[in-house]
Write a structure and sequence with these properties.
Elements lengths: L2 H9 L4 E5 L14 H4 L3 E2 L4 E9 L2 E2 L8 E5 L2 E3 L1 E8 L35 E6 L6 H17 L6 E6 L14 H9 L34 H16 L6 E7 L5 E3 L9 H6 L19 E3 L1 H13 L2 E7 L16 H4 L2 H28 L4 E2 L7 H7 L2 E7 L10 E8 L5 E4 L2 E3 L3 H4 L6 H10 L9 E10 L3 E10 L7 E3 L2 E13 L5 E14 H10 L1 E8 L4 E11 L5 E10 L8 E2 L3 E4 L15 E3 L3 E9 L12 E9 L2 E11 L9 E9 L7 E11 L9 E10 L1
Parallel strand pairs: 8-9, 8-10, 10-13, 13-14, 29-35
Antiparallel strand pairs: 1-24, 2-3, 3-4, 3-15, 3-17, 5-6, 5-16, 7-15, 11-12, 16-18, 19-20, 20-24, 21-22, 22-23, 22-25, 25-26, 27-30, 28-30, 30-33, 31-32, 31-34, 34-35
Amino acid sequence: MNYKLILALLLSFCTFLPVLGQTATQTTPQTRPTDDKDDVVKITTNLVQIDAVVTKDGKPVPNLKAEDFEIYEDGRKQNITSFAYISNVGTSPSAAPDNKSAGTPAIPGAPAAPIQRDLPRRTIAIVVDDLGLSAESIRQVRRQVRKFIAEQIEPNDLVAIIRTGGEMGALQQFTNDARLLSRAVDQLRWNVCSRVGVSVFNRIGGPGGQGDDTDPCGGQSYRKTRRALEFILDAMGQLPGRKSLILMSDSLPMENQEGQFETADSFSEARSRLPNADSVADQGFVSVGPNSRNYYWALRKIAEKAIRSSVVIYAVDTQGLQYTGITAADSIPTPIRQGEPAIKQVMVNRSRTLLSRREGGEMIARQTGGFQVRNSNGFQLDRIMEDQRGYYLIGYRPSVETFNRKFHHIKAKVKRSGMNVRTRFGFFGVTEEEAERTRPTPQDNTNLALLSPFGVQDLELDVDAFFANSKDEGSIVRSFVYLNAANLTFTPGNDRHETSLELHGVIFGDNGTIVEQIKGNTVLSLKQNEYEQALRDGLRLRFDMPAKRPGSYQVRIAVRDRNSSKIGSAGQFVAVPDLRNNQLAMSGVVLRAASESATQGAVGPAGQRFRINSEVEFAFVIYNAAIDPATQSPNLVMETKLFRDGKSVKSNANTPISSANQPDLARLVISGVMRLQEDLEPGNYYLQVVITDKAAKDKQPPVTQWVDFDIVK
């Protein structure tokens, strides 16, 4: 092993470095899904296409035919012209093809396989409305979401956990990596600006009276919740296929009454007071009585965005089952406490509070084809996931009158008895072309590629990102980028072939906020032999970004060919440890073929591929190893395991690590060799490296790193 080469690749700090190298084989470009799968809800002059879920006794029914359905628009029966059942779940990982699309290995702590656009999946945004949650409820939300991650998510599911009360990104939060999702759950906290207090009911005699919702931060929490939902739905519209949004909130009422529990006017009466109530308009608050605000139109706007974005909303009333009577937390004067009518009034008021808080969530769920979970402390997330296993895609040809910019109600019926059908409430008569945003510029496309959880593959690109640290420069996230040179546009001239590239790197932190962003430009000028090698073996690039704070991050890299404007992108989870606490830590693990010469200057590219019956070298750096007083040197042991489809296929346990000839005991450069035996099947594998510090006084837990690669024939 060439230690200088390993040190240079792990510890040198070059923002951008192009490198030519070799790979064992080329990968096959990804295919894009068909338009029918990419756009579920279509509203065009030629086709209105809606999605419907049919259940019987609470279980999905997947085997119906077009003749079993009737579709009505504004009460008029439509002729069904297209029909299909779309499954959102694929085969088990063991039955999937031998590539990374097989899904996430069932190994705790292992990296996730990349999400593939063309494979069945469920796309789910769990929106935790911390602006509408009590501290009491947030504990239950954390518990149930953590259970959901452990038990309900399947390998190709795409999930985001987003809070309404913080700065947010949306697209970049979607992942199938349980490590990122667990990190997001850890960040769920009660928001001091929540319109719900510490408990679901404010205690009598305390702030807020007998359970009235308050807003300690200027009365803006409800508006911020609505705006957050609109932002998330707009972003989800950029994702392909049918999506779902699970909204967890204690309080999303359709009206807010200041200090009252009076019944508001009906919504039909409120609408009748407005001119053109059924036309497209950005309606604000509708006054329906003294000291009250009606949020009907604001919520209906949210439902319309969900319909246009192919998003089904499921509302979870996180208040759960509540006791509405007097509790020990209430402070009631003795004369009132002895009065039965007064106690009954408290119970009535609290019951009304529970009902009114859930009305908005129930409305937007029903209008988008979902449902609301209420009176459940378990939140029934398994029922929601079961509901998303598949759906019917039903289309009809609309009339000219459909596109009159008014709202059109949709109703679906199933002719068979005992079945329940849910679909969209309706849509405004605006064509898809009218609703389409301005065509994105190339820069906008690059930003979208950075945000999207799917690796945009106009350029075939893969990324291997990991943490590293040097004494002089501090911590970085280093990314090895692999490009298929055949996708790039080269310009010949002066016995060289040139291409110009933009590299964009972003590190996303909590709730999708941007922690670091760097753009690099390079012109690759290759001699004829280098050009031929690049076409045959691919290009390797190195891209570094500073990691100023410890934490768990989503790293995304996008590359744009400036000649053709083609874009490729990929992302990865990276954990940056805090080296200041003197705890044992590791850099990422880099790989290369043992037969690869050091003069080529390349340690394995992202998506590394190695042949059966070959040797692979791996290397990493250990930080903060304890010093054994008896030997004045570290006492470390290493365990390596090779995993395939969640099962260990090879292991080497408790191998002592020598620190001889190490120039810096605080940064130990460690290497090893792994033999890929003939009996290993081609496919995707994970190498796990576990380091245990035997000299640590406080018995620190072992540290672990993973790296994935492919074995080919």
